[in-house]
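Subgroup meeting minutes
Present: P.N., E.W., G.H.
Scribe: E.W.

1. P.N. recapped why we're keeping a running log of single-chain structure predictions: easier to compare across weeks, and new members can see raw inputs and outputs side by side.
2. G.H. added today's entry (821 aa).
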Amino acid sequence: MKQLSVFIAGVMLCAALFPARLSAQQDVVKVTTSKATERKALTVNVELAASAAAERVMLRYRPFGQSEFRAAEMVLSGATASGTIPAEAVLPPSVEYYFEITKRGAAATVYPLGAPQATVLRTTVGGTNPKDQEVRFLSPEPGSTVAAEDLVIAISFFYASPAVDVSKTRIFVDGVDVTAGAVVSDDVILYSPENYGRPLMKGAHFVKVELRDTTGKAYHTMDANFNLSTASEIAAAEAELRTIGSAQLEARHEALGIGGTTYLRGDVRLDASYQSLGFGGNIHLDNQDKPERQPQNRFLVYGQTDFLRIDVGDAFPRMPSNIVSGKRVRGVTGALALGFFNLDVSAGQTDRAVEGILSQTIITYADSAAVLGRPDNTIEVAPYQYRTFSAGTFARSFLAVRPSFGSTESFQWGFTYMHSKDDISSIKYSAAPQENTVFGTDITMAADDQRVRFETQASLSLLNADISDGSLTEEDYDLMEANGLASVDDLRKVGKIVKSFITFNQYLFPTNPFGKGIPALAVDASLSLNYLGNFLRGGFFRRGASYKSFGNEFLQTDITGFIVSDNIRMLDNKVFASLSYEKKSDNTASTKEVTTDYNNLNTSFTFLLGANLPTLQIGYGLYTRKAPIDLKTRYELINRADSATTADSRNDATNRFFVGSSYDFEAGVRHTATFSLNISDRTDKTFRKRDQNNLFVQTGLLSDIGSGIQTNFGIVYSKNQTNAEQFRLDPSFFNQDSTLITDNYNYTILTIGAQMRMLDDQMRVTASFHPTFGAYSRQELVFGVEYTPYPRHTVIFQADAFQNSGFKDDAILSLIYRLMF
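Output recorded in log:
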């Protein structure tokens, strides 16, 4: 207890040494991620301020070299939001991301400030060593359990570099050199412990392979592990039902300046297996699941075999990304994978009905002519009397089916059909109900052990913006014919076919044309080559201005262009150089007055020189946009009778610099230091002169000082300056002087914290202090205890206190009980 008293007193003293001037709140307290490894999903967590009152948090991310940010909705649980960047976007040398936070009764804001044009967050992605692909453990499979009587260690060198001399390769089993007992057969090395008088005991074992080049020098080392048992024990284990599960209960109270809220949540997860069958599920219950919100509760039950998986509940299916990409579907999702034939299906509901809100104010119109000019969001309550309403959300059904032929390891050809429709009868106060159908095909071809990979997808969408009155009827066709409309018979024939897929009326594209070409078509293609230390990628994309898929509503459309990139591995994979160039433009349907051209260049150097040296990444990017319209031309466009669309003038260039480093070192005790620096400088060459300069610095030091105590110190500094030219928009202003307005927005966040392990690591006590001052100002004190009184049982208590300036203080108390079974 003396240790604990000294620990808490030390943290309080640190707090006293850093007074803060408080005037505003900061939305984001802390951002954490899992370890970023190439082509492995990256988990991102953001802890929000108690007073943020977030209703929705979107994670927007992009791989290195791309300018388009993709989106994923984060799971919001109280003041914590969790999201996942999918594996295909986690590529060396880094992945960038930012958050879009929507708060109660307010427009969405972004973190960090200036994103995405200026500052974004970045995580370095560790690449896999290509030399790992040169050695294949054929038997036993790494991590598997094998019977002793069947054990033969077989290692393939079929993909080894010509620089490797297989005859000089050394094999170690549990640290013992067994090379002399191994047999080389073609490109495979075989070793049987039983045949060479070295039988292995049951349990875990390790195999290490040391490759040497033709000169005898070390080339590469790989290892794998396996478990040894007996055939009878393995059969008995497979016949047993094996389960693993966890449960958690949480009570949390947020006493905020805007009011208090109590959260009660429960989570249960169970995974089980019996022979080749796996099954289980999870459920999340939240007392904030209310009819006026989209579902907060989550549940999923699944069953799977080697070739089939079925999910019932809340799933996030992924099919070709332009059609279905991580949209939550409550229903049934399944995947059949036979290799020569595969089938992916997802059917259910993406949105549940949320009724709109009817205003109590009655608006009276003088006559029928005045009624015709009323707003769309009105409903009649009496003759000439209407009430306005805030539109609700329709229940929206969803169906996606994708049969495919072949395996993505070599060749696969898939076809996707997606249909989503609003349920007109689900709510009363609403905007126009919509319906969406998408047809698509995709092809994947790979060769030379995935060193060559080609992927392409094409999809065509149909969108009906108002299905209130259903499809055209025979009476509608007759009326059009009576009014002299040509080709009514052809339209009637087309309608009979199309209405089998989507409501056919005047609000359906392409019966309501939009621009030139095929605006509802989206095409993407990419080719990657992985040879001679280069991972070269090229891609083309064209997505029409009216392409729309309810399975991926955040896809950037009205864009066409190409991208090329190369990731070069040097000095035995200790140095990586990355380069990418992207060129694209909008106005694909020629409906805008001016086309905007984008040119984006990204470069990066990553240094991973060894365990005792710091890692370092340096990056530079140049982003330009050009749609030049001088101010006089823009004024003429506004007043021109035939100008249907007016484009804003864009002509800017943004330079971005990045430096990031981490270092594990000994200096009295063990330390881990991290540092990142982002500088963004945008020059606006238009009449607005909206120049922007951003500096974002983040540094931290984690120290293990012994006796179970760790300390953590960190600083975040953000400096932002925005300029804008102020003038009057009228014909006489061209001869007037304008005024340049400069806005500065700077803040600093300090972190002083410590953690102490006690009672043989059964208890962990943490405390931290986070003063924020500048444009964002606040003081936060966090204290927590995690206690495991019995194996598999854990109790967690945490208290957060926020001292605010200018408005009421905030506090959060939470108590969690966790059980592993």
